[in-house]
Amino acid sequence: MNGSSLPRMPRINKILIGIISSAVIALIVAPEIYAEPPAKTEFKYQLGQHYPLALSPSSATTAKHLPHSALVWKNHIVENGESLAIAFDSVGLDSALLHQIVTTNSKTKKLTSLRPGDKLNFGFDDAGKLMELHQPLTNLETLIIKRNRDNNDFTATITKQQIETQTNYAQATIDSSFWSAADKAGLTANQIMEIAALFGWDIDFALDIRAGDKFEVLFEQHYLDGNPIDHGNILAATFTNMGQTFTAVRHDNGKYYDKDGQAMRKAFLRSPINFRYVSSNFNPRRLHPVTKQVKAHRGTDYVAPIGTPIWAAGDGVVIESSYNQFNGNYVFIRHNGNYVTKYLHMTKRMVKNGQRIKQGQTIGTLGGTGRVTGPHLHYEFLVNGQHQNPRTVDLPQAHSLSGSTQTVFKQQAGDKLEQVKSYSHLLANNGILLPQS
């Protein structure tokens, strides 16, 4: 009969016959484990039927080394004021076992510094013997303590789950405030502050933000078991402020530069405070709020809640930290000989005369001391003794990239900014939003 004329066998029958064939082969090639049936006995296997296999004595010996049955787990959450000894006692374990576990190696010493809310998972065998103890340390790391079945000693290791990193994107146009727009775009509070820090040397986020300003950000998104868990580094960002666009791209060294390799970091911050709102702008013809006379207001007033930290705008040395009836509590800092910054009306001063200061260091807190109508920080910026607008004055820059390093970075920056542009076009053309955590 021609093979082509045979009836077609259903796919399920082919699979079942293949399984049975494999079982028969296993019986033939493993005589040491599976006993062969008597020579005169003929078996006719039927689909869907179970067939017993007789085990040889050698296989019974092998069975001793098969995995033990699943452990019985007791979970314990540490409460306020609770020690490891109390936790052990609550699950029926004695102090001798506790000592043995804690002294296993340096990793188990972490158990002695428990905090409320920490979890301990105890695994017992059928005889009620502790075989494993697990303590989650973070979302990714777990301390695992196991008993050695041969000598009853314990071993301790810290396992770390692998996370997957993907690239994500967010963008927004500002209509009321930068914070509000960034929050609606799905960014976290930390990411919002990072963006403000990236562009804080070029933009005064207290005074310069306008409706219509916009930003884009390319960042790392971390996933665990397919679920977003947190964000990684910002890879690239653009910020358009009053028609001028600034770019920031992350280098392999962890620092940020513009698309040409010029350092984003500068010698001075545009704003020395994490602002809430600003009461007045730089204005040399300002009407003084107390005397009602036209008097040069050679600085900027930042209004925020009393106690708001005030930052040093740049590295320098404190040349005055004092109090008088006009300035209230005030601090003057000299930077590199040519620059002086002044901070007035503080509630508290946190630095002393002659003290060296780092950029971003808290030097005091906002208040309402001296001649003022309400709590605020009055900030002045002097270059060679002359008052300058801190929002617009050219600021000296930190070290930038050069040579081959700059050439390579410019190519990498171009690639990242093209990626930002691609995401932007995708949103514009398709009207979709990329998933945010």
Describe this structure in words.
The chain is extended and about 85 Å long. Strand 4 and strand 5 form a beta hairpin. The protein is an alpha+beta fold and 437 residues long. It contains seven helices and 20 strands. The longest helix has 28 residues, at 403-430. Strands 11, 12, 13, 14, 15, 16, 17, 18, 19 and 20 form a ten-stranded antiparallel β-sheet that branches. It has a five-stranded antiparallel β-sheet with strand order 1-2-3-4-5, with no helix packed on it. The chain has a five-stranded antiparallel β-sheet with strand order 6-7-8-9-10, with helices on both faces.
What's the helix and strand layout?
Blueprint: H1 11-29, H2 57-63, E1 72-77, H3 84-90, H4 95-102, E2 119-124, E3 130-136, E4 141-147, E5 154-160, E6 164-173, H5 178-184, H6 189-199, E7 214-224, E8 227-241, E9 244-250, E10 256-257, E11 277-280, E12 300-303, E13 309-311, E14 316-324, E15 328-335, E16 339-349, E17 356-357, E18 362-366, E19 377-383, E20 386-388, H7 403-430
Antiparallel strand pairs: 1-2, 2-3, 3-4, 4-5, 6-7, 7-8, 8-9, 9-10, 11-12, 12-19, 13-18, 14-15, 14-17, 15-16, 16-18, 16-19, 19-20
What's this entry about, in short?
The protein is an alpha+beta fold and 437 residues long.
What would the keywords be for this entry?
437 residues, alpha+beta, ten-stranded antiparallel beta sheet, 7 helices, disordered N terminus, disordered C terminus
Instruction: Give the overall average pLDDT.
Output: 82
Strand % is 25-35%
Biggest sheet features: 10 strands, antiparallel
Q: Which of globular, elongated, flat, extended, rod-shaped describes the shape?
A: extended
Along the chain, the helix and strand elements come as HHEHHEEEEEHHEEEEEEEEEEEEEEH
Tell me the structural class.
alpha+beta
Helix content class: 10-25%
Distance between the termini: 65 Å
